[in-house]
C-alpha cells in the first residue's frame, strides 16, 4: 500500500492506495507550526485507526513550501520510505505557462489524463478555486485562480457585521428570503456560476480544432456545487490523489497500469 499525501493551505488530505484505487482516506488541518516531529505525530495519530503495519512507498504534493521538508521528513518517519515529491520531473505532460504552476494543479492535470479525453479543464474548489486548461496532448496551457468558496465566505462574515457563518448545505431558491438562505444561494449558486462561466470563457480561448474540452470538478466542496453546474462536470473528488499516484508510479519506473499509468 502507498501513502499519498496532498498538502493544501488549509487541509492535508491523505489516502492509502492500492491497485484499483483508495483503500481509505483521511484528513487533518494543515498546521503552519509543524516541524518534522510534530507532523509525524499528527500523521501517526490520524493513520492509527487504519492499522497499516508496512507501507510500500509514499508520495507528497505540497503547495506550502515552508512545510514541504518537514512533512517529507515526517512521511519518512511514519512509513520508512523516502517520499516521492511531486515536481515537473515526474509528470507526464508539458507545462506551457510563463510562471510555475502549483503542485495541486499539476496533480489534478495528471489525474485528468486518466479520467477523460483531452482537451480538458480541471476546476478545483479548494482554499483557492483554480481552473487548469490542458490541450489535446494533455499539456497545461494555463490556469485561472480565484478566492476559494470557504475563503470568500470567511472574508464576507469577517467584514460584514450583520452576516454570520452558515453551514455549507444545498441551497433553496436563488431568491432567498432569510439571511441564511440568501447567503447559501450566493455562495453555492455563485460557485456553480463561476465554474460554468470560467469553463465557457477558457473553452472559447482553446483551439477549436482539438474539439470541445471535458470539464472535471474536484475539491472539498465539489460534491455540493456540482449538481448546480449547468456545464455538468465530471465529479472526481480523488482526482489530485489519483494524479499523485500516477506521478509516484512514474518516478518509481512502474508501468503496471496501476493508478492509470500513462
TrEMBL record:
The keyword Plastid does not apply. It comes from the Bacteria. The active site is at 104 (proton acceptor). ATP binds at residues 6-13, 127. This is Type III pantothenate kinase. Homodimer. Belongs to the type III pantothenate kinase family. Catalyzes the phosphorylation of pantothenate (Pan), the first step in CoA biosynthesis. One of its GO terms (molecular function) is ATP binding. One of its GO terms (biological process) is coenzyme A biosynthetic process. Pathway: Cofactor biosynthesis; coenzyme A biosynthesis; CoA from (R)-pantothenate: step 1/5. Coiled coil: none annotated. K(+) binds at residue 124. GO terms for cellular component: cytoplasm. Keywords: ATP-binding, Coenzyme A biosynthesis, Cytoplasm, Kinase, Metal-binding, Nucleotide-binding, Potassium, Transferase. Its EC number is 2.7.1.33. Its cofactor is K(+); NH4(+).
Amino acid at each position: 500500500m502507498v501513502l499519498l499525501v496532498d498538502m493544501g493551505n488549509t487541509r492535508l488530505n491523505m489516502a492509502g492506495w492500492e491497485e484499483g484505487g483508495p483503500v481509505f482516506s483521511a484528513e487533518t488541518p494543515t498546521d503552519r507550526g509543524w516541524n518534522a516531529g510534530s507532523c509525524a505525530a499528527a500523521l501517526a495519530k490520524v493513520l492509527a485507526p487504519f492499522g497499516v503495519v508496512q507501507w510500500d512507498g509514499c508520495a507528497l504534493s505540497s503547495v506550502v513550501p515552508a512545510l514541504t521538508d518537514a512533512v517529507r521528513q515526517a512521511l519518512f518517519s511514519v512509513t520508512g520510505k523516502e517520499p516521492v515529491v511531486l515536481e515537473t520531473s515526474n509528470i507526464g505532460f508539458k507545462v506551457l505557462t510563463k510562471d510555475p504552476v502549483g503542485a495541486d494543479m499539476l496533480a489534478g492535470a495528471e489525474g485528468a489524463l486518466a479520467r477523460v479525453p483531452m482537451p480538458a479543464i480541471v476546476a478545483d474548489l479548494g482554499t483557492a478555486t483554480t481552473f487548469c486548461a490542458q490541450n489535446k496532448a494533455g499539456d497545461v496551457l494555463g490556469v485561472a485562480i480565484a478566492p476559494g468558496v470557504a475563503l470568500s465566505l470567511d472574508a464576507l462574515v469577517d467584514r460584514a457585521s450583520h452576516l454570520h457563518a452558515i453551514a455549507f448545505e444545498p441551497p433553496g431558491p436563488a431568491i432567498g428570503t432569510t439571511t441564511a438562505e440568501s447567503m447559501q444561494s450566493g455562495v453555492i449558486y455563485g460557485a456553480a456560476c463561476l465554474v460554468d462561466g470560467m469553463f465557457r470563457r477558457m473553452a472559447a480561448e482553446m483551439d477549436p480544432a482539438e474539439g470541445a474540452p471535458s470539464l472535471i470538478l474536484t475539491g472539498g466542496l465539489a460534491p455540493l456545487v456540482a449538481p448546480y453546474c449547468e456545464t455538468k462536470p465530471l465529479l472526481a473528488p480523488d482526482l489530485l490523489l489519483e494524479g499523485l499516484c500516477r506521478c509516484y508510479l512514474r518516478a518509481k519506473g512502474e508501468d503496471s497500469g496501476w493508478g492509470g499509468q500513462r
